[in-house]
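Quick one, probably user error.
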């Protein structure tokens, strides 16, 4: 029992004797000891309770923290044995603890990740921490990507087996986002093919490997012929579907390790590795690859449920070449492709050193051609067309260019450039205008002669072409029956129905149509029956060797016979000898044109001679 308040033990004290003083102190301690003992016990219990509560709170806080971590947590031994496992996402990932507990890492992760995981464990053992190791797991039938970080536990006593805490974070969404970003950055959105960026990267590697291995590779540059007409006429949806089918055909033909890429629009590039060990053999092998692709592109394309046709012009360059990079190779293949187009499309051409100079010359010529009409350098010439008796019944208008420095630039040189650049549209309108003004003049002078004018495919396909012809006829007052528009057979191949409809509109104005260079192109009797034609022109190449060559003679006679049965007039071009003329007249060719009856001359001089 504790002493009562106010109680003070009394001891005898003479103030001097040590024993007396010690007795006094001991008496005081003995009097208070029971109370002190009880109070200490209570405080100890209270302190223990406080420490237990604090430990429990710390434990709960740690448990709450661990439960909030979405990652997989492992405790590992140095051998990779999993001693403990926990994760707040176990239920979501359908991963029971027994899948991991007591198992080794090599039994859990895929074989290709075992070496990396054990390397991370060893690194953590030596340095204390290792991170950034990625691996893949199939969980519940779904592929998950994880990133592994491992830290060494420092609490182990000396001599104890080292333990490690491994944190495996699910980075599946991050990997998917990276894949989407990579797809957008390096692949074409429409076709799924590698884009220009990816192509250049692969070309860099291919060029480096070819130089090291002494192997020759090839770059094939493919541009679809007349794709723009399909895209414009049928809409971008049809155009896109056509491009996807083209991509599929090219991909099916590519060899393992090669690359088919889409640069944009209707341009594709095929990178071919290790074609051969020398340039000559590589050239033959690349040509075979290109020919296979060209043939594949020729087949019709079925799109809801119509059939469409397009072809591909292909340029080829070989590598490696001294001092040339990937951009040089692309430019060379592109140049070769345009050469293929110039030679008639749906062709294959190799790059040559002279091609680059030709490209630069074409660019300069195009710039000069833009100025030519404004400066009066372009002129309309005409060449006589005569009947069987030699009487002039009309003429063909021909454009000539007299350049102040270049001199007379041949049409075979500047007309293709005008076609490619779009200048042909303005030039073609000007020629029709010249023809109609001349017809009006001749008509006023009492001469009913016809005039023929060449119309390019690009000009004919213009949406307002019919309206332009109508306007020129109305403005000049020319007799439309005396205006003959010459088109080539290549124009008829693309969208025959649209061609017939447009020709019919113009024929309803009174204008007539002629097929120029007949026999050198499509030459189908099927379209001859459907088109509103007035005339066929036999190409000069067939007339040259008549009547001596039996093959050309038979061809000319066949054309005349077909035309007669279809009630079409026939004009033979390139007549230069009397023997040719006599043969044609005997074969009942109604109209002749060539040097034998006059060379092309300025239109003004020709008209002046007729009406004087």
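Nope, works fine. Designed sequence:
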């Amino acid at each position: 029992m504790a002493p009562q308040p106010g109680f003070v033990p009394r001891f005898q004290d003479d103030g001097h004797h040590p024993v007396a003083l010690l007795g006094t102190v001991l008496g005081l301690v003995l009097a208070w000891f029971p109370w002190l003992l009880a109070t200490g016990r209570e405080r100890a219990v209270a302190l223990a309770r406080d420490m237990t509560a604090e430990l429990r709170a710390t434990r709960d806080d740690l448990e709450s923290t661990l439960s909030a971590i979405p990652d997989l947590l492992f405790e590992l031994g140095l051998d990779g044995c999993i001693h403990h496992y926990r994760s707040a996402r176990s239920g979501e990932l359908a991963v029971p603890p027994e899948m991991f507990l007591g198992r080794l890492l090599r039994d859990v992760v895929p074989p290709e990740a075992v070496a990396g995981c054990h390397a991370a464990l060893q690194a953590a053992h030596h340095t204390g921490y290792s991170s950034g190791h990625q691996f893949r797991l199939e969980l519940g039938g779904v592929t998950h990507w994880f990133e592994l970080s491992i830290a060494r536990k420092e609490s182990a006593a000396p001599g104890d087996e080292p333990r490690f805490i491994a944190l495996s974070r699910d980075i599946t969404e991050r990997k998917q986002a990276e894949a989407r970003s990579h797809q957008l950055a390096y692949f074409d959105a429409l076709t799924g093919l590698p884009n220009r960026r990816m192509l250049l990267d692969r070309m860099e590697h291919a060029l480096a490997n070819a130089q090291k291995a002494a192997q020759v590779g090839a770059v094939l540059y493919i541009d679809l012929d007349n794709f723009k007409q399909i895209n414009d006429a049928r809409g971008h949806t049809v155009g896109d579907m056509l491009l996807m089918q083209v991509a599929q055909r090219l991909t099916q033909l590519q060899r393992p390790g090669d690359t088919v890429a889409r640069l944009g629009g209707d341009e594709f590039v095929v990178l071919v590795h290790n074609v051969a060990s020398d340039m000559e053999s590589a050239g033959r092998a690349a040509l075979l690859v290109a020919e296979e692709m060209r043939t594949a592109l020729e087949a019709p394309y079925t799109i809801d449920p119509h059939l469409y046709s397009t072809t591909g012009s292909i340029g080829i360059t070989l590598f490696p070449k001294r001092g040339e990079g990937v951009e040089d190779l692309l430019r060379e293949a592109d140049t070769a492709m345009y050469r293929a187009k110039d030679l008639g499309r749906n062709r294959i051409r190799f790059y040559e050193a002279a091609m680059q100079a030709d490209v630069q010359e074409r660019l300069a010529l195009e710039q000069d051609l833009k100025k030519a009409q404004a400066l009066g350098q372009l002129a309309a010439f005409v060449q006589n067309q005569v009947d069987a008796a030699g009487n002039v019944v009309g003429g063909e208008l021909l454009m000539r260019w007299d350049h102040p420095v270049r001199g007379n630039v041949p049409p075979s040189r500047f007309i293709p450039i005008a076609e490619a650049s779009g200048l042909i549209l303005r030039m073609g309108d000007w020629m029709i205008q010249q023809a109609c003004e001349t017809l009006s003049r001749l008509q006023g002078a009492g001469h009913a002669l016809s005039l023929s004018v060449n119309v390019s495919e690009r000009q004919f396909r213009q949406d307002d072409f019919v309206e332009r012809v109508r306007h020129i006829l109305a403005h000049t007052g020319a007799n439309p029956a005396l205006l003959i528009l010459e088109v080539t057979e290549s124009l008829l191949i693309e969208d025959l129905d649209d061609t017939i409809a447009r020709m019919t509109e113009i024929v309803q104005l009174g204008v007539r149509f002629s097929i120029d260079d007949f026999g050198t192109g499509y030459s189908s009797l099927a379209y001859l029956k459907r088109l509103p034609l007035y005339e066929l022109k036999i190409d000069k190449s067939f007339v040259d060797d008549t009547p001596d060559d039996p093959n050309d003679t038979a061809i000319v006679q066949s054309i005349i016979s077909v035309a007669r049965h279809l009630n079409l007039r026939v004009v033979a071009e390139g007549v230069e000898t009397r023997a040719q003329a006599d043969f044609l007249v005997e074969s009942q060719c109604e109209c002749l044109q060539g040097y034998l009856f006059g060379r092309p001359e300025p239109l003004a001089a020709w008209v002046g001679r007729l009406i004087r």
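The chain has 22 helices and 22 strands.
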